[in-house]
Amino acid sequence: MYEKFYETLNTAAREESKQSKTRKYLCKKGKSADPNYQRLANFSGWRQISALRKIHHLAVWLRTSSIHCDQWDMKVGLRLGIDNDTRWNSWYKLLSNALRKKAEIRQFFLDFEREFGDNILTISDWEFIEKTHKFLQPFAAATLLGEGAGSNLSHTLMIMDALLHHYEKAKAEDTYDPHLLHCIHMGWFVLDKYYSLTDNTPVYAAALLLDPSKRLRYIQHNWDMAWINNAVENTRVFWEKNYKEAGPVGGAVSPEDADTCSRRSRNELDDLFDEITVWEESDPDVDDFDTFIKSPPIRITCSPLLWWLNQERIKTYPRLSRMAIDVLSIPPESTDPESAFSGGRRTLSWDRERMMCNNVEKVECIGNWIRSGLITLSIEGGNGIILDTAIDVDADKDVDDELD
């Protein structure tokens, strides 16, 4: 009994080990066209499309042999790359490289016709590749915009709106390929799923409403009425709960500090000015949030965050500007924080390991502000770094590195 039980377990272990090695080999070799591979991974979607299946097999063929690569480099001169599951836009880059060398690749197929057989791309295949490449182009551009240095949180929903509109246009166009139409429907479904998740936090809608180039007019033009009411109400609750009664950015400015004429004594001319001057007392019941979002959007030449950091805007909307600065300072993706984190390795070199974490954090933060243009150095005519942010070092602690 024991020997039979042991043999059963040993056989199952050997089979599992064999399949594991097969999966690792196929992954290392770029998902080669093994007949059992479709059972190991679910790639049945694009494999049913002739053009994509052929271009994938070509990319795998080039990776399976250095001889193939040498022949390809000599006749074509541009590596195709390989599609995969994790790298964004891998299919787009693969198709882009193929279209850039379309003439050379067609000649390469003629030279190695016997080796490729049924995997040679036909005229209709090239047309499908061009159509697919054109459809994927906005997604590649959206990736670059989202992770770019000038990106902000208001771009997130705007990018999703544009991509959903792109899907709707693609579905409306006449297409006779059921596989492509199915891919479009599935892509729309996934994007709509993640779009709905943005309702879990009000900051995404707040970023749109506080963007001076969008405001309420943008969502009225692009969203359904049910979405608009929910987004505005959630943002208003967020504003009233956290910012409406909070202090302005940098503290309140007293009338004495704001009055430029307070440096001299009043005279009869000032009394005459008071008699002819027309002004209207500000209504304390007017909500800055409603006033701003209902104003018409304007075209700006800088980022929304820099627009709100202007002193005139801070004076006009002392509390709303605090909310706008907080919301628009949130990075839309993790690219910038990861870059700043990686930059800490250069600051904390191998011979400065005793530098405190707080100091590293402040150095990286100030450096990022300088590179982003939020701080202008005094040698360049700016105000330099605010002295209040100087780092205090405890004299009782054994620290070798201090910041000047």
TrEMBL record:
The keyword Transmembrane helix does not apply. Keywords: Metal-binding, Nucleus, Zinc, Zinc-finger. InterPro entries: HATC_C_dom, RNaseH-like_sf, ZnF_BED_domain_contain. It comes from Metarhizium robertsii (strain ARSEF 23 / ATCC MYA-3075) (Metarhizium anisopliae (strain ARSEF 23)). Its main location: nucleus. This is Multidrug resistance protein CDR2. Residues 269-370 form the HAT C-terminal dimerisation domain. One of its GO terms (molecular function) is zinc ion binding. It comes from the Eukaryota.
